[in-house]
Please model this.
Amino acid sequence: MTRAYVKIQDGCNHFCSYCKIPFARGKSRSRKKENILKEIEKLVEDGFKEVILIGIDLSAYGEDFEEKDFFYFFLIFLYIFFIFRTFT
Model:
């Protein structure tokens, strides 16, 4: 077990003429930072050496939060780096 995938965002708000994702998956929704970090911690404890953050439109991460703090995304990366340095 070396690589894990963590979905942090789903959906899309762009409604491009050729794309069905907004209709199939709905509007953009971001997972809360606390839930993401908890899942990553568990994966690291389970022995994963790499975590890949995935989503339909990662550039929209955090846009749906009441508090528009796009710094969350950067903090998640820093936290992941710290976890891997601690456990490896």
User: Anything to note?
Assistant: Residues 10 and 29 are 5 Å apart (CA to CA). Residues 71-87 form the longest helix (17 residues). The helical segments are 21-25, 33-45, 71-87.
